[in-house]
Design brief:
Chains A, B: One of its GO terms (cellular component) is cytoplasm. Chains A, B: It is found in: Cytoplasm. Chains A, B: One of its GO terms (molecular function) is DNA-binding transcription factor activity. Chains A, B: Pfam families: Staph_reg_Sar_Rot. 2 copies of one chain form a homodimer. The first copy, chain A, has 6 helices and 3 strands. Chain A has a 3-stranded antiparallel β-sheet. The first copy, chain A, has one domain: Arc Repressor Mutant, subunit A. In chain A, helix 1 crosses helix 5. Chain A has 141 residues and is mainly alpha-helical. At the A-B interface, helix 1, helix 2, helix 5 and helix 6 of A face helix 1, helix 2, helix 5 and helix 6 of B. Chain A binds a DNA duplex (30 and 30 nucleotides) through helix 1, helix 2 and helix 4.
Chain lengths: 141, 141
DNA sequence: GCCAATTAGTTAGCGCGCAAATCAATAGCG
DNA sequence: CGCTATTGATTTGCGCGCTAACTAATTGGC
């Protein structure tokens, strides 16, 4: 067996991540969401009325990436961005009723995708945890 | 423990992949390469003089994504793109001497990154293989 | 041999993810 | 108090990754 791209973890990870967002695309289309937007919505479903910096910490995404995503979600009526009264530098990002209601509707998406990949749940869990520790270690550099 | 974004495999994978390209950036900077360009170079180091379609198969990247990347690498003098004589639709992508020579110089990059993450090699290998099977399963949909 | 179908590659448009530069508001220190 | 340093958020510029639409070359069926 001669050496292959798939021998490298970085390739495997990159490929899996691309495959994931590709697989999510058709499922999220009916909600008019991209994967990045869906990620932000998930964060807000877990904790509403947060600042952009807090959202950045939770999603592990750059504020510069987040601003346009949040603006687009605002444009779709999913959330509001209001200047904080305590600290006028901050913007409080809060779900609208539409944004809250979407949580129930979008709940099927995850299970739809899981159905299409029949991987042992325990494998999924170790994969998940190993990805997180890797991400942490890479971030520490 | 209340539910978190990191409970989801998709989040873990997405985060790890972003962290990876972020970690590669400073290491590849001195070669004037992005991670995507480095990936294409790796593919060519393994098999030179291939068509764009073949490169697309090996890198698991869309031809539409690949064309501009390959053009940029051509602009940097790393490779040439010549129309195939047998089939004039095809373009043969071939490394230049500069492109070939880069392989030795860039060999350090991988080990540099490995040093910064002290994860059990066996864990890396299972992580790698699980990512590949996940990617395959997601692609089959 | 001809014409429709397929295949190879490109282009345009969109939405990222990030770094760097910028601006406004607040904190902190003398 | 006043001035600097820090913090929160935005903007700009770049390079992706993908879809869809397109062009050009080749294949295949009749």
């Amino acid at each position: 067996m001669k050496p292959q791209l798939s021998d490298n973890l970085c390739f495997a990870l990159y490929t899996a991540s691309n495959a994931l967002t590709r697989a999510y695309r058709p499922l999220l289309e009916r909600f008019d969401l991209t994967y990045g937007q869906y990620l932000v919505m998930q964060a807000l479903w877990l904790e509403d009325k947060v600042s952009l910096t807090e959202l950045s910490r939770q999603t592990r995404l750059d504020p510069g990436s987040l601003t346009p995503v949040v603006k687009r979600l605002e444009g779709k009526g999913m959330l509001t961005r209001t200047v904080s009264s305590e600290d006028e530098r901050r913007k409080v990002i809060a779900l609208t009723e539409t944004g809250q209601a979407l949580q129930q509707q979008a709940a099927v998406v995850k299970s739809e995708l899981e159905q299409k990949t029949d991987i042992d749940p325990q494998v999924i869990d170790t994969l998940r945890r190993h990805c997180l520790t890797l991400a942490d270690q890479l971030a520490k550099v």
